[in-house]
Design brief:
single chain, 184 residues, alpha+beta
Amino acid sequence: MDLEIESRNIEMTPRWKTEIEARMADLQRNHDDLTHGRVTLTKNRHHKKLDNVAEALVLITLPGRQTLTARKEDKTFEEAIRAAFDAVAIELRKFREKRGRTEVRTAPIPPERGVICKRFPQEGYGFILQEGGGEVYFHQNSLQGLTFEELEDGTVVVFNLEQGKKGPQATVVTRPSPVAAKGQ
Protein backbone atom coordinates (compact mmCIF):
# COMPACT_ATOMS: atom_id res chain seq x y z
CA MET A 1 0.00 0.00 0.00
CA ASP A 2 1.15 3.50 -0.84
CA LEU A 3 1.21 5.77 2.26
CA GLU A 4 1.64 9.55 2.24
CA ILE A 5 2.19 11.47 5.47
CA GLU A 6 2.23 15.26 5.45
CA SER A 7 1.81 18.20 7.78
CA ARG A 8 0.62 21.77 7.40
CA ASN A 9 1.50 24.76 9.59
CA ILE A 10 3.61 22.52 11.85
CA GLU A 11 6.78 20.43 11.65
CA MET A 12 6.17 16.64 11.56
CA THR A 13 7.74 14.88 14.55
CA PRO A 14 9.17 11.34 14.41
CA ARG A 15 6.76 10.33 17.19
CA TRP A 16 3.69 11.34 15.17
CA LYS A 17 5.05 9.65 12.04
CA THR A 18 5.69 6.42 13.97
CA GLU A 19 2.18 6.56 15.45
CA ILE A 20 0.64 7.04 11.99
CA GLU A 21 2.67 4.20 10.44
CA ALA A 22 1.73 1.83 13.28
CA ARG A 23 -1.97 2.69 13.04
CA MET A 24 -1.93 2.28 9.25
CA ALA A 25 -0.20 -1.12 9.64
CA ASP A 26 -2.97 -2.19 12.05
CA LEU A 27 -5.60 -1.15 9.50
CA GLN A 28 -3.80 -3.02 6.77
CA ARG A 29 -3.63 -6.22 8.83
CA ASN A 30 -7.41 -6.28 9.05
CA HIS A 31 -8.02 -4.97 5.50
CA ASP A 32 -5.33 -6.26 3.16
CA ASP A 33 -6.87 -4.74 0.01
CA LEU A 34 -6.18 -1.08 0.91
CA THR A 35 -4.46 0.52 -2.07
CA HIS A 36 -3.58 3.99 -0.80
CA GLY A 37 -3.47 5.95 2.42
CA ARG A 38 -2.86 9.60 3.16
CA VAL A 39 -2.61 11.28 6.55
CA THR A 40 -2.46 15.03 6.89
CA LEU A 41 -1.80 16.78 10.20
CA THR A 42 -2.79 20.45 10.33
CA LYS A 43 -2.29 23.00 13.06
CA ASN A 44 -5.13 25.50 13.19
CA ARG A 45 -3.70 28.99 12.68
CA HIS A 46 -6.38 30.47 14.92
CA HIS A 47 -5.34 28.30 17.83
CA LYS A 48 -5.57 31.09 20.42
CA LYS A 49 -9.33 31.30 19.88
CA LEU A 50 -10.01 27.55 19.81
CA ASP A 51 -9.49 24.69 22.26
CA ASN A 52 -8.81 22.10 19.55
CA VAL A 53 -5.72 23.14 17.62
CA ALA A 54 -4.66 19.76 16.19
CA GLU A 55 -6.41 18.23 13.20
CA ALA A 56 -5.78 14.80 11.66
CA LEU A 57 -7.21 13.79 8.30
CA VAL A 58 -7.03 10.10 7.31
CA LEU A 59 -7.92 9.13 3.75
CA ILE A 60 -8.06 5.45 2.67
CA THR A 61 -8.55 4.21 -0.90
CA LEU A 62 -9.94 0.76 -1.67
CA PRO A 63 -10.08 -1.08 -5.01
CA GLY A 64 -12.60 0.37 -7.41
CA ARG A 65 -11.65 3.92 -6.38
CA GLN A 66 -13.76 3.72 -3.22
CA THR A 67 -12.48 6.32 -0.74
CA LEU A 68 -13.15 6.64 2.98
CA THR A 69 -12.10 9.62 5.08
CA ALA A 70 -12.08 10.70 8.70
CA ARG A 71 -11.18 14.15 10.01
CA LYS A 72 -10.81 14.74 13.73
CA GLU A 73 -9.75 17.75 15.78
CA ASP A 74 -8.38 17.56 19.30
CA LYS A 75 -6.11 19.33 21.77
CA THR A 76 -3.02 17.28 20.84
CA PHE A 77 -1.93 15.63 17.62
CA GLU A 78 -1.65 12.22 19.32
CA GLU A 79 -5.31 12.38 20.35
CA ALA A 80 -6.39 13.64 16.91
CA ILE A 81 -4.45 10.83 15.16
CA ARG A 82 -6.02 8.15 17.40
CA ALA A 83 -9.53 9.57 16.95
CA ALA A 84 -9.19 9.83 13.16
CA PHE A 85 -7.86 6.27 12.80
CA ASP A 86 -10.60 4.93 15.11
CA ALA A 87 -13.21 6.73 12.98
CA VAL A 88 -11.84 5.42 9.68
CA ALA A 89 -11.71 1.87 11.13
CA ILE A 90 -15.41 2.16 11.98
CA GLU A 91 -16.14 3.43 8.45
CA LEU A 92 -14.22 0.47 6.97
CA ARG A 93 -16.16 -1.98 9.13
CA LYS A 94 -19.49 -0.43 8.10
CA PHE A 95 -18.42 -0.48 4.46
CA ARG A 96 -17.50 -4.18 4.67
CA GLU A 97 -20.75 -5.06 6.45
CA LYS A 98 -22.78 -3.24 3.83
CA ARG A 99 -20.90 -4.97 1.01
CA GLY A 100 -21.28 -8.34 2.75
CA ARG A 101 -25.07 -7.99 2.81
CA THR A 102 -25.29 -7.46 -0.93
CA GLU A 103 -27.43 -10.14 -2.50
CA VAL A 104 -27.14 -11.27 -6.06
CA ARG A 105 -30.60 -11.52 -7.45
CA THR A 106 -31.41 -13.78 -10.34
CA ALA A 107 -34.60 -13.92 -12.28
CA PRO A 108 -36.96 -16.53 -10.88
CA ILE A 109 -37.35 -19.65 -12.98
CA PRO A 110 -40.91 -19.77 -14.27
CA PRO A 111 -42.66 -22.73 -12.65
CA GLU A 112 -44.57 -24.13 -15.65
CA ARG A 113 -43.19 -26.11 -18.60
CA GLY A 114 -44.62 -26.86 -21.98
CA VAL A 115 -44.12 -26.88 -25.75
CA ILE A 116 -45.28 -24.47 -28.41
CA CYS A 117 -48.24 -26.12 -30.18
CA LYS A 118 -49.83 -23.34 -32.25
CA ARG A 119 -48.54 -20.00 -33.55
CA PHE A 120 -50.32 -17.17 -35.30
CA PRO A 121 -47.46 -14.93 -36.51
CA GLN A 122 -49.68 -12.34 -38.24
CA GLU A 123 -51.65 -11.76 -35.02
CA GLY A 124 -48.62 -12.08 -32.71
CA TYR A 125 -49.87 -14.79 -30.38
CA GLY A 126 -49.88 -18.53 -29.94
CA PHE A 127 -50.58 -21.43 -27.60
CA ILE A 128 -48.42 -23.61 -25.37
CA LEU A 129 -49.31 -27.23 -24.65
CA GLN A 130 -48.81 -27.39 -20.89
CA GLU A 131 -47.18 -30.42 -19.24
CA GLY A 132 -50.05 -32.45 -17.84
CA GLY A 133 -52.41 -31.22 -20.58
CA GLY A 134 -54.27 -28.07 -21.51
CA GLU A 135 -53.43 -25.19 -23.81
CA VAL A 136 -52.20 -21.84 -22.51
CA TYR A 137 -52.43 -18.60 -24.53
CA PHE A 138 -49.33 -16.39 -24.90
CA HIS A 139 -48.72 -13.07 -26.63
CA GLN A 140 -45.44 -12.13 -28.34
CA ASN A 141 -44.93 -9.39 -25.72
CA SER A 142 -44.58 -12.08 -23.03
CA LEU A 143 -41.46 -13.55 -24.69
CA GLN A 144 -38.16 -12.97 -22.89
CA GLY A 145 -34.80 -13.92 -24.34
CA LEU A 146 -36.32 -15.17 -27.60
CA THR A 147 -38.31 -13.78 -30.51
CA PHE A 148 -41.59 -14.88 -31.99
CA GLU A 149 -39.77 -15.79 -35.24
CA GLU A 150 -37.48 -18.22 -33.36
CA LEU A 151 -40.41 -20.25 -32.07
CA GLU A 152 -41.47 -23.41 -33.85
CA ASP A 153 -44.05 -26.02 -32.99
CA GLY A 154 -42.42 -28.33 -30.43
CA THR A 155 -40.09 -25.67 -28.93
CA VAL A 156 -39.76 -26.36 -25.19
CA VAL A 157 -40.50 -23.32 -23.02
CA VAL A 158 -41.03 -22.41 -19.38
CA PHE A 159 -43.59 -19.82 -18.38
CA ASN A 160 -45.51 -18.11 -15.59
CA LEU A 161 -49.21 -18.86 -15.58
CA GLU A 162 -52.01 -16.40 -14.84
CA GLN A 163 -55.74 -16.52 -15.24
CA GLY A 164 -56.77 -14.13 -18.03
CA LYS A 165 -60.22 -12.92 -19.15
CA LYS A 166 -60.60 -15.85 -21.56
CA GLY A 167 -58.72 -18.51 -19.61
CA PRO A 168 -55.13 -19.34 -18.63
CA GLN A 169 -52.38 -17.23 -20.17
CA ALA A 170 -48.58 -17.15 -19.99
CA THR A 171 -47.15 -13.87 -18.68
CA VAL A 172 -43.42 -14.63 -19.11
CA VAL A 173 -42.27 -17.16 -21.69
CA THR A 174 -38.60 -18.11 -22.00
CA ARG A 175 -36.30 -21.02 -22.78
CA PRO A 176 -35.60 -23.38 -19.88
CA SER A 177 -32.23 -22.70 -18.25
CA PRO A 178 -29.59 -25.38 -18.83
CA VAL A 179 -29.56 -26.10 -15.07
CA ALA A 180 -33.35 -26.47 -14.90
CA ALA A 181 -33.39 -28.58 -18.07
CA LYS A 182 -30.84 -31.07 -16.61
CA GLY A 183 -32.74 -31.38 -13.34
CA GLN A 184 -36.00 -32.35 -15.07
